[in-house]
Design goal:
This protein is α/β, with parallel strands linked by helices. It has two domains: 40-160 and 332-379, Periplasmic binding protein-like II (D-Maltodextrin-Binding Protein, domain 2), CATH 3.40.190; 162-330 and 420-490, Periplasmic binding protein-like II (D-Maltodextrin-Binding Protein, domain 2), CATH 3.40.190. The protein is built from 19 helices and 16 strands. The chain has helices at residues 2-31, 50-65, 67-71, 83-95, 111-118, 132-136, 140-144, 169-179, 189-205, 223-233, 250-266, 276-281, 342-356, 358-365, 381-391, 395-413, 425-452, 457-464, 466-484, and strands spanning 40-46, 73-79, 106-109, 156-157, 161-168, 218-220, 239-240, 245-248, 287-291, 301-304, 307-310, 313-316, 327-331, 334-337, 415-417, 488-490. A hairpin with a 4-residue loop joins strand 7 (239-240) and strand 8. The longest helix is centred in the first third of the chain and has 30 residues, at 2-31. Mean pLDDT is 89; it is low at 1-30.
Length: 491
């Protein structure tokens, strides 16, 4: 009897071992679903244009000829226009809108949009395809951006950027030499405002027969970033991803509002062309805050009296409000993988790992001043060699090279920040930006009429009634948040 029981136990153990072995085999099979004899096709949707589009297409071609051919993966890159057009196409596909194209296997995206698509059950958790060691290769802050709930990895970072303060150094030097102002004035937002006011008054005084025709010093590429980072510097996360709401801190918002609304209304700040770099080129601005990836587009000359006049370039760290904590935006779209078959998921993940490896990522990111996403890239000889080549290149390349040192220091050593998304948070960015810009546009019109009536700057500010305008802005924000069904609290 005992012998029979031993035999039964032995049989059960063998059965369990076979089951475990089968499960392990299945798990292994899932990780090796690719078959070079039966290549899987991967469709990648992106929004890159110009040099970045060309760089991506070259990388895809290289992948297909090397690792893709070896493993059985063929990637096809499709440009879908701007990021707005891309996100609409992705949303329509995910929701099954009539005549929408099928979901791509891989697509460029920001966390806000990924959160929305994930709630439709359309995204792959990339933890299944990237080991801990593979994930540890990325800059922590960059990778964490794609972990929307702190655990599931839905976005792989591709390139990143921050925001800096850019200067037409030639015009700035002329102003500082005449007035005694220096670069240190631009380290705080209050200093920026005072410098812009001084610049307006200095240029106004050069035409004494035409009062009130001073020139603007400063512009903003992203007003939304100014509001978000300004709040963060002062201690408030206006887009509170943890509690899924908007926090309206009246004291912090008032500081932001007074500086921007007052500066825009009085002409200290301005926005004329489509981009602030256009305003630099036209001579309408001397400085602006913008993405580190935009250094390649900073003008190397401005037009004066129908003549191209060369200008020098300078980049400074992002300004901070007095008493606040230095902080700047961390931004840049990553890529997400659509939930589909094991073959397609693994093929898409394989391409992402290859594309973001330092060997490929350095070439792609440095095309226009973006930051590579792997830690090892920054100590890589290729990265340093590329910087040296840029420093010896034409003026645009030198501008990009100059930006890297400042941007790297800011994003690695300072408190860079990306707000955690929640339902509707993407709309919050748009709401904050448009509402503040609309208020400022109205302020400009009113101030122009008051200037024409001969009022001084203090009289104009008093007549504009910044307290009343701030309350009006808050009322507008509340109304739009209520209409959108986005929760908020006030402090």
């Amino acid at each position: 009897m005992k012998r029979k029981m031993k035999m039964v136990c032995l049989a059960l153990c063998m059965l369990m071992l076979m089951t475990v072995a089968s499960a392990c085999s299945a798990a292994t099979q899932k990780k090796t679903a690719l078959d070079p004899k039966n290549p899987v096709s991967i469709t990648l949707w992106h929004y890159y244009v110009g040099d970045n589009k060309i760089a991506l297409e070259k990388a895809v071609e290289e992948f297909n000829k090397s690792v893709g051919s070896e493993k059985g993966v063929v990637v096809s890159a499709v440009a879908k226009g701007s990021i707005v057009e891309l996100e609409k196409a992705i949303t329509d596909s995910a929701k099954g809108v009539i005549n929408a194209e099928p979901m791509p296997d891989l697509f460029s995206c920001y966390p806000d949009k990924v959160l929305e698509i994930d709630q439709l059950g359309k995204l792959c958790d990339l933890n299944a395809y990237l080991t801990k060691d593979e994930q540890d290769r990325y800059v922590d802050e960059f990778l964490n951006d794609g972990k929307l709930d702190g655990k599931r990895l839905l976005i792989i970072p591709v390139v990143k950027s921050t925001e800096l303060l850019y200067l037409n150094k030639t015009a700035w030097n002329t102003f500082t030499a005449a007035t005694g102002t220096n670069d240190e004035a631009l380290s705080t937002w209050e200093g920026v405002y005072n410098a812009a006011r001084a610049y307006y008054q200095w240029t106004d005084a050069q035409t004494p027969d035409q009062a009130g025709d001073g020139k603007s010093l400063m512009g903003f590429d992203s007003v939304a970033n100014y509001v978000i980072i300004g709040n963060k510097q002062l201690g408030t996360e206006i887009i509170d991803g943890k509690d899924a709401k908007v926090i309206l801190n009246h004291t912090d918002l008032k500081k932001l509002f007074d500086l921007y609304y007052g500066g825009m209304s009085l002409g200290y700040f301005n926005a004329v062309g489509k981009f602030r770099s256009d305003d630099i080129k036209a001579g309408d601005l001397v400085a602006y805050v913008g993405s580190s990836s935009g250094a390649a587009y900073f003008p190397t000359w401005i037009e004066q009296n129908n003549t191209q006049v060369p200008i020098d370039f300078q980049a400074l760290t992002y300004p901070v409000f007095q008493g606040g904590t230095p902080s700047a935006i961390q931004q840049g779209a990553g890529m997400a993988v659509t939930k589909s078959t094991p073959e397609k998921e693994e093929g898409a993940a394989l391409f992402l790992k290859w594309f973001t490896a330092k060997e490929q990522n350095i070439n792609f990111s440095m095309t226009s001043g973006y930051l590579p996403v792997e830690k090892a890239a920054y100590d890589n000889t290729d990265f340093k060699a590329a910087l040296a080549t840029m420093s010896a290149g034409d003026q645009s390349q030198k501008n990009v090279a100059d930006v890297y040192g400042i941007a790297l220091n800011q994003i690695m050593n300072a408190d860079t920040y990306a707000s955690a998304p929640f339902n509707g948070s993407y709309n919050v960015r748009t709401l904050l930006e448009k509402s503040l810009m609309t208020m400022a546009a109205s302020g400009c019109q009113n101030a122009a009429a008051l200037k024409a009536a001969g009022m001084s700057e203090p009289e104009i500010l008093a007549a504009l009634n910044l307290d009343a305008r701030f309350d009006e802005w808050l009322t507008s924000i509340r109304s739009q948040l209520d209409q959108a069904g986005i929760p908020y609290s006030e402090e």
